[in-house]
Specification:
The protein is an alpha/beta fold. The chain is built from eight helices and ten strands.
């Protein structure tokens, strides 16, 4: 069965699963993006998977997030958590590939996303290595920001980088997560105050799009899940620290003849 037919079958199953027809812009994007370029194993099954050590989102999750983002042609868009690059490609079909910017804290994933996007024909999408909590201020403001990682509250920097009427979509929560869409707001009735210095930065919840389950946002130096076995984790950390502390010892010359 050819890929176009598989994509059509996937879209039909998604509409059945989500119990609603897909919005025309999202539908067209799904039809055009070759998911097999980004996901090697069963690319058109509606399930999460793993590619090169990173989790790939199920197509239905991508649809829910992109639909909540409500992107329009020509809007400057930032994807925080580039992953394999599939979501960025879907957004590129809607807003234009030169309008999409994607960042990831993992250098290997940055290279992977760049390679996949190039192979799929989206070379103009900018993918850079950044800490997601700091965003991409050089290209701000953004009309739309999509955060593909769970956080307790919207990061201050991402709110600051939104346009006045911009929209940020993120999974909020550390245990139970809810997909929400927010906009920057300085009003008295906004949710979740965040303070920095003397200026408050608040946000207003525009929409809630149901429960999700995504990995938490990573910080510099982290990769994947934390080892739950404390002994193994601490042994590995001590070994790494010991190896780092011994760097350069092999360059110290000892004249054993003089020590005898």
């Amino acid at each position: 069965m050819d890929e176009a037919t598989l994509r059509a079958d996937m879209i039909e199953s998604l509409e059945h699963r989500l119990d609603r027809p897909l919005e025309e812009r999202v539908l067209s994007a799904l039809q055009r993006v070759p998911r097999e370029t980004f996901v090697s194993e069963s690319p058109y099954d509606d399930r999460a998977g793993e590619e090169h050590g990173t989790r790939t989102l199920a197509p239905s999750t991508v649809v829910r997030m992109v639909s909540a983002l409500d992107p329009h042609p020509g809007e400057e868009t930032l994807v925080v958590g580039a992953g394999v690059g599939y979501t960025a490609a879907v957004l590129a079909e809607i807003v234009g590939d030169r309008r999409v910017h994607a960042i990831d804290v993992d250098r290997d994933l940055v290279r992977l996303a760049r390679s996949n996007l190039s192979a799929a024909g989206y070379d103009a999408v900018l993918v850079d290595r950044r800490n997601g909590t700091t965003g991409l201020p050089e290209y701000a403001p953004f009309d739309r920001i999509l955060l593909e990682a769970a956080v307790a509250e919207p990061p201050r920097a991402l709110l600051d980088q939104l346009a006045v009427d911009g929209r940020l979509v993120l999974p909020r929560g550390t245990g139970t997560q809810t997909l929400i869409a927010v906009s920057p707001d300085a009003g008295e009735h906004s949710d979740g105050p965040e303070r920095s210095g003397t200026r408050d930065r608040r946000y207003r919840v525009l929409d809630q799009a149901g429960p999700v389950r995504l990995p938490p946002m990573l910080a510099d130096g982290e990769r994947g899940r934390i080892e739950r076995n404390r002994t193994r984790r601490e042994d590995a950390e001590r070994a790494a620290a010991g190896a780092a502390s011994r760097q350069g010892w092999e360059h110290d010359w000892v004249d054993w003849d003089e020590r005898r």
